Amino acid sequence: MGILNILLYYGLLIPVSLLPFPVLYLLSDGLYVILYKVIGYRKKVVLKNISNSFPERSREEHVQIMSAFYRHFCDLVVESIKVFTISRQEVEQRFTVINPEFMDRFFDKGQSVIIAGGHYNNWELLAVAIDGPVKHKVLALYKAFKNQWLDGKMKSSRGKYGLEMISTKIAKSAFQREDLHAIIFGVDQSPSKSNNCYWGTFLNQDTPMIFGAEKYAKEYNYPVLYGCINKIKRGHYSWEFTEAIEEPNKTGYGEITQRIHSLLEQDIIAKPEFWLWSHKRWKHKRPAESTQQ
Questions:
Q1: Per-residue pLDDT tens for 133-172?
Q2: What are phi and psi of 51, to 5 degrees?
Q3: Is the pLDDT of residue 292 over 80?
Q4: Among 124, 232, 132, which Cα is nearest to 182's?
Q5: Rounded Cα distance, 69 and 46, in Å
Q6: Which H or E run includes 291?
Q7: pTM for the whole thing?
Q8: Where does 44-88 show beta strands of DSSP type E?
Q9: Which of 4, 184, 186, 197 could be stapled to 140 by a disulfide with Cβ–Cβ 3.0 to 4.6 Å?
Q10: Burial of residue 150 (number of CB atoms within 10 Å: 0-12, 13-18, 19+)
């Protein structure tokens, strides 16, 4: 298995990563035909997720969103491969942080923060772009791969321009650092256990929500900042901070979690094709004893 991973990495991923963007987008166009038209990769999951999220829209609109999603998804695949070898100059040309001063004011006050966001647009480019324009040291919590070699390659790829990856197994260590830092949480993943989360409403559905951002925000009194990745044009993105929950300990139970999801929901409703619809987000059902709303 280790040899196969090495061959895949050096024999396929790196050569593809070295291709210029125009060629990568030709590959993306071909991949769209294969994944969407020929194989139908997770097509039932995608269409079900879209249909349940937008019950007021027609079947034709659901299919239009699905087709647009697959086009973006294929761009995301080749852009993510490009991240393995992308230069800092290319990153700066293709990903802009619009308002870094929004977060810098917390640095100036001596506060570390939490950055909350979702799998919307290109989070892989965000990983290599976010640390440079802001004053905080940026960290990202992630679930480590079982394969240590692949885990190391992923960490070195995402972290080559400043981002530091921290395994969720040692998440608390990130909050016990002495430097001023910003910790990224991806909030729209499906929890591994449905009875250890916050249940709320997201995209018209009963949804289990990961509670970590709120839990740590209150435990360590970290402001929670929400940001959105916008797609300017093919291969070009921007990040914008849009809201801050500055006093987490003055919020009620679940308030931060639901607010973050509401902000993400607004972004998805505005341009639904840019969210990761192929993810099995609603595989859990609310336990009978759970009463959160």
A1: 999 999 999 888 888 888 888 889 999 999 999 998 899 9
A2: -65, -40
A3: no
A4: 132
A5: 9
A6: none
A7: 0.93
A8: none
A9: 184
A10: middle
Band of pLDDT at residue 253, cut at 50, 70 and 90: very high
Rounded to a whole number of angstroms, the distance between the first and last alpha carbons of the chain is 45
Q: What is the pLDDT of residues 64-106, one digit of tens each?
A: 999 999 999 999 999 999 999 999 999 999 999 999 999 999 9
**Dihedral (CA of 18, 19, 21, 27) sign:** negative
Q: Which residue is it, tokens 């040692």?
A: 170
C-alpha 22 chain-centroid distance:
25
Q: How many CB atoms lie within 10 A of CB 271?
A: 16
Sign of CA dihedral 81, 166, 249, 108: negative
Tokens representing 200 are 């709320």
Note whether 180 and 111 are within 8 A (CB): yes
Residue 143's pLDDT is 84
In Å, what is the CA distance from 217 to each residue of 39, 124, 230, 253? 43, 24, 26, 12
Are 79 and 16 contacting, i.e. CB atoms less than 8 angstroms apart?
no
Closest CA to 277 of 115, 29, 35, 78: 35
Alpha-carbon distances of 118 from 18, 124, 148, rounded to whole Å: 28, 12, 26
3-state secondary structure of 178: coil
Structure tokens at 59: 């079947």
The token duo for 252 is: 């009620």
Q: In what order do the strands lie in the sheet with 181-186?
A: 95-97, 236-245, 224-233, 113-117, 181-186, 137-142, 164-167
Sequence-distant (6+) residues with CB within 8 A of 101 are: none
**By C-alpha distance, which of 127, 112, 41 is closest to 80?**
127
The angle at the Cα of 15, spanning 11 to 19, to the nearest 5 degrees, equals 165
266 in Cβ contact with 110 (< 8 Å): no
